[in-house]
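Lab notes, practical 5.
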Amino acid sequence: MPRTPHPTQQAPLALTMGEPAGIGGDIALGAWVRRVEAGVPPFFLLDDPERIQRLNNRLGWGVPIRVIESPEEARGVYESALPVLALNARCPDAVPGELDRAHAPAVLESIERAVFFAQSGAAGAVVTNPIHKSALYDAGFRHPGHTEFLAHLTGAKRPVMMLIAPGLRTVPVTIHESLATAIALLTTDLIVETAEIVADALTRDFAIANPRLSVAGLNPHAGEGGALGREDIDVIAPAVARLNACGIQARGPLPGDTMFHASARDRYDAALGMYHDQALIPVKTLDFHGGVNMTLGLPIVRTSPDHGTALDLAGTGQARPDSLMAALRLAAGAAANRTKFSETGA
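Output from the prediction step:
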């Protein structure tokens, strides 16, 4: 699977601050330091400039930081300094590794403004640093997580999570549910709806004209003809048939334990797993440090590193920016592909 190229002249990417006690600032600084060697496209950070400068000083990296007033300024600044667009809510007293619910307004403002800039066209896409949901819940945040908040901000009806590693894209049909609940929620309609969103994203954001989907079975050996459960026959197989009938190439249900070796991955553009771990384990096994989380079904492009806040690494300089750099590259490429598709239909 070739890396999607990013253009050099599109609007810069909006990078959110994430949890200020976590590694968001560390990896933002690290991505800027490695921008040339790693091909990181221009981005600006929505953050408290005083906080990010204190972190920069703590790490001793000497990254030049430039406060900008608008996203348009970022491109002219990016080659010589990290552009930071100041938030109204500040958190200069943030301490790496120490959660404080008082910082929630800054975290949420960063996301809200990034989405606004992407919707207005001032930013090419949104890339989100990891948030710490418990800190936001303590401050009154009422959304289950990042994805649901982004759907709320953009008016999206059905956001879908895609995980991406070199040579593999996976999508869980059910996400953060217990296994028992995931099985109860699984329906033919849900699989079809998810697959349709995936196929549309593969066409618009990845420039794949005729996407190929592989659909995993739920039970061992895809149910072994019903001997190990009826869900593969009664729920998943009808979904695959409906997808093919409406022109989406889909295969399945396939045994989950044989879908992810190298030659199997060559036969599809994305794999649908029926539950969280079925889709995430293969990606994290292939590229634990560089995997990317992308939200499909939004009117904007949004990507994120496929890891958490790593409070124990914050402020130490040991956090690797690989996943963030991959998320930035992917966001730029997807935004360019989406723009081209909207202009040409291909």
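Observations recorded by the TA: The first strand starts at residue 13 and ends at 16. The two ends are 19 Å apart (CA to CA).
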